[in-house]
Amino acid sequence: MSTKEVLIKQLSACLDQPNWFVPLTAAIEELSAKEASFKSGTANSVWQIVTHLTFWNDRYLTRFKELPLAQTHIANDETFSTNESVTEKDWQSAKKALQNVLSEWINALEECSEEKLLSSAYQEPIEPWSSVISNLTIHNAYHIGQIVEIRKMYGLWDPKNGVH
């Protein structure tokens, strides 16, 4: 299996392919805007995690496509939405945005060359795109797991979707 095939498989597992863990589509399925906004103390809500994942996946995809970034620097904490009055329309839009950017990543990988994946993603330190994308998928999986745990904490998780 090529590097490209591995990365496509990882991103597909994060998006909608049940495998070793629950994919995003199952993690956010049947969750209302109100439920997505539930917070406990300083922990992030599902809504905040979705906006955070959308930001970073979009940012790295923009760089991968060699397009200009809107902002050159942003603090990680700023990527978690602070909007606490999320409407159903906002929530549906946020879910769609994250699903779209993950789908766009899969398409971009399907269209890229193996050479692109070995090329440097940064000026310094030199790190190939394959490593950056692999870390991005780990980041996605980590936060998708958080979403499932948050849903469990509030009694909003059906074990038939995976993870008991």
Radius of gyration: 16 Å
**Low-pLDDT stretches:** none
Sheet having the most strands: none
User: Average pLDDT across residues?
Assistant: 89
Q: Structural class, from secondary structure content?
A: mainly alpha
- Strand residue content: under 5%
Question: How many individual β-strands?
Answer: 0
Instruction: Give the ordered list of helices and strands.
Output: HHHHHHH
**Global morphology:** globular
Question: Separation of termini?
Answer: 31 Å
Helix content: 55-70%
Number of helices: 7
Entry summary:
The protein is mainly alpha-helical. Helices cover 58% and strands 0% of the residues.
Key words describing this protein structure:
164 residues; 7 helices; mainly alpha
